């Protein structure tokens, strides 16, 4: 027997209920993002390799799909979208009034070992805020939008927060080179505490070990005193570090006030190299790995030749949300799903039936039209979860009526065509169909 072609490792088809869930999750994200003032942005799946090599960090670069096109240009499949957003902002949006609030639904690619919740092709639901001077407000709007989204899906979740700016400032003061800083942060990210000690001891001496491991074990309440204790070491960086500490404390306090569950996690550093200050990840019940992550990447514009800019954002992993979603797909947002069975399939019948279909659609009711053997269509309707069937034969057309069957009770009635909406008890005013329409 011929073997069917598989999908490449780490990729998959989404069909049936999974595809319904996927669409529902995307639509709901768009709806909530828009309610919070975010506008869509679409960027290419392929970018120049250089876009990511400049500042995304070793880990991302190692996992990228990189290739040369026919003209020998070095391209990459995007491993994430933030770098593209900065590029797109500098090219297209510099003249826009600030702040600029953007959301995206984008597939990304990382050449990683596939495992539960880790794919080589996956989807990110992202939010980015550019040019908002009130940093606290911009960070809160991002996490609040995520919170509202996950709440609407009924997903139990919490945030863990940290601040990579504090580590960087301490390491700058200790004279640790940028490459070595990236390496230390990478080791902290992987929770390799002994390796951190060994690496720092060998290259920078015991003080570096003491300062950095001390930071790794300090809770939010003791953080201020810890920084005060190193005022001399920090020198001119002292004020900036104090600001990071206060930013982090305020962000956590305010987030809690808004209803978010959030904890400070000193060892949180995140895998991307462009973060400058506050960072956080989103955790959900039933999954060890994070379902989302983000933070501040102020002035990433400088890396691409732009002027300094306030920037913050986050992305959720749609594939991971699918894994933790308890409730099944909502499928169609309509309360009723009606299958229309056309028995009189001539021009007059079609005209009559499509009048009904059009009216149902105006009320947000899914209503596809089928022709053929009614018994066969009914069994398809029950397999696909339709709530009602409408039969349209010669009699119905002549009498201006419809025969409608409630598929859960089996009750069947004949009613006037213009009473259909009333019979289904649909809201009197048609509501907008597109949840994304503004
Ligand atoms: P990230 O933490 O690398 O951040 O990715 C964000 C989310 O994408 C992760 O929390 C996870 O849910 C999902 N994700 C990442 N890799 C995979 C994978 N291999 N399979 C399935 N899901 C995955 C970023 O990418 C940043 N650009 C987020 C950001 C936006 N920061 C500021 N703005």
Global structural class: alpha+beta
- Helical stretch tally: 18
* Range of helix content: 40-55%
- The amount of beta strand, in percent, is 15-25%
- The whole-number mean of residue pLDDT values reads 92
Going across the biggest sheet, name each strand in turn. Answer: 1-5-6-11-10-9-7-8
Oligomer: single chain
Q: Major sheet, described briefly?
A: 8 strands, mixed
What's the helix and strand layout?
Layout: H1 16-35, E1 39-40, E2 46-48, H2 49-53, H3 58-62, E3 66-68, E4 74-77, H4 82-93, E5 100-109, E6 121-130, H5 135-153, E7 157-163, H6 164-173, H7 178-189, H8 193-204, H9 206-216, H10 220-229, H11 231-234, H12 238-257, E8 262-264, E9 278-284, E10 287-296, H13 300-303, E11 311-317, H14 318-324, E12 338-342, H15 347-362, E13 369-371, H16 374-383, E14 388-392, H17 394-399, E15 401-406, E16 412-416, H18 420-423
Parallel strand pairs: 1-5, 7-8, 12-13, 12-14
Antiparallel strand pairs: 2-4, 3-4, 5-6, 6-11, 7-9, 9-10, 10-11, 14-15, 15-16
The chain binds histidyl-adenosine monophosphate.
Histidyl-adenosine monophosphate is lined by residues 80-82, 110, 112, 117-119, 122, 124, 126, 128, 271-272, 290-295, 297, 313-317, 319-320.
